[in-house]
Amino acid sequence: GCYKEIQSLSIDCPTKPLPCSWRGPLINVEDHLQECPNRRLACGFGCGAQFLISEKETHENECHKRPTNCRYCDTSIPYDSLEDHYISCREYPVSCTYCKKNFSRRQEVSCYKHCTV
Q: 76 vs 5, which has greater pLDDT?
């Protein structure tokens, strides 16, 4: 009775603040929301941003929390943490204080031992 009548009621798209032109039975609203061009998404990288589904690719390419690989050790790091990562990255290039040769931070210890003997 009542449940079937309610489910067949026609409603407008419920997306906020910009509903699209869709109008259909209440029972179909969940299906519509999966495809609605005005549906808002939350950033999957955890930056807290919300955007239209049509803006997803742009946001993912520009998000300050997007995963980025360190060019020295290939570890995946959030983009906004890359500079902090370089401080402790074992593959980051450094120069020996004594011989001025370039090494990764990991190799620097053995150079230091060799140059100070």
A: 76
